[in-house]
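Ligand-bound model needed. C2E.
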Amino acid sequence: MINIPTPSSAPCKLPAAAIPVPGVASKPKPTSALRRRFGDGDNLAYFGGGIFVAVFEEHLRNAVHDSATAVFGQPFAIGGCAIPATVKCGLARYPVHGRNAATLLQYAEGALEKIRERREIAPVRLLAASAADSRGRGLEQRLRLALKHQQFLVHYQPLIERVSGRIIAVEALLRWRDPERGLISPGAFMPALEQTGLIVPLGEWVLSKAVCDCARWLSIGLPKIRVAVNISAQQLTRKDFVGYFLDTLRLARSGPCIDIEITESALLEEPGSLRRTLKALRGEGVRVAIDDFGMAHSSPTRLAEFPVDSLKIDRSFISQLGHQPHSQGVVSTIIALARAYGLRTVAEGVETIQQLEILDALGCEQSQGYLHSPAVPAEELEFLVAARASGAQP
Ligand code: C2E
Ligand code: MG
Ligand code: MG
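Prediction:
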């Protein structure tokens, strides 16, 4: 992958170093220089933004470097001016870095990104993607590229109302379709998203996707369902969060019903500003759920301090129902606590009829889990919602 400021991508204004040089008009332009080196056929493609992709055999690597230096080491003559070009090449090797074009491009782009970050001013720089790019820092780069190449998806998991058996809400859950590894669940990349701060742009994308899908469901006449998005503490504590969130909701004219899920541990951060954030959102009809409740050992009295609507009982308690005698007592206590604060309860990770029956007996209002459905793509969810609304139990 070769990055050159080509005539088409170069700014209209000539760079300061551009010096009119009479008599250099015969020097080739970057594109024709590349064509001469790699040929006009399938081995060379223009990717836009001053980036070319070239395919060549590994033994030619040194030759590529030498000819790149020979061709790009001197200024190009464009419009009577001598324009110096800096060339950066990110190299990926088949099959070490991948067996298909998409993955090889990701690695090449990763290497190119590294050269850019170094901000060296040598006219020609070549860098091969390293083995480490496939791990650690590589994950960060792959996530950045995944965002750029739109490899993320949102799947939706239904929440079922105990009394009616209907799907009354869905939870938006992020998925990554990695070209090499297939569909990946957030457990594998959420920590990296949090560490790198990528969770902020990605969280914004999830919100806009949920708003679009929700508006579409309303427009095709599906029964109204609320859509809950998970919001990380990093998003929640940003000053512009409320404004951004509400603006995104307003983009859909049909008035989507978007709710948020925040973790219990988020309640421990900057309580004053969090309270204001939640109050502002709830004032606009957004409901707030505390996710994975019971895991962060926060004091129950904190619940009274925050404007929230429901508690989602963590899966670890639900999975023990019917097996561990004390688990029923714990779940029952959480439900009683929720009632005391006027909150609804949702059981997470319900997998068996036995668990559902115990939860029904304890008075848990909603349930979510593989017993009903895993998270599914938006189109599949439309069938589930329509079938449930018509009385069928898919
Ligand atoms: P969560 O918000 O508690 O979501 C519920 C998780 O439990 C989902 O995992 C779901 O697929 C899984 N689950 C649901 N029912 C069952 C069941 O019956 N059995 C089992 N074993 N698992 C079940 P998933 O999709 O892997 O998501 C994991 C976590 O990643 C989520 O937990 C949430 O904390 C986070 N996450 C997912 N999407 C987003 C997002 O867009 N933004 C943020 N900030 N976090 C997200
Ligand atoms: Mg959640
Ligand atoms: Mg949860």
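The longest helix spans residues 199-219.
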